[in-house]
């Protein structure tokens, strides 16, 4: 069986509204369960691919600040 997690996650959230995506992200973070991390990773990967270089730079600068301590 060739299970593609990216494809499965993408299919499961296809057509979701912004509010539904926010709920999904907040729920995954609040639960703190590691099995939910791949889904967030797929969200991030797709965001990264669609973001401009300046958006990407801003994001990684925020990460640098967050993980500096």
From TrEMBL:
Keywords: Sporulation. It is found in: Spore core. InterPro entries: SspI. The keyword Glycoprotein does not apply. Signal peptide: none annotated. One of its GO terms (biological process) is sporulation resulting in formation of a cellular spore. Induction: Expressed only in the forespore compartment of sporulating cells. It comes from the Bacteria. Belongs to the SspI family. HAMAP family: SspI. This is Small, acid-soluble spore protein I.
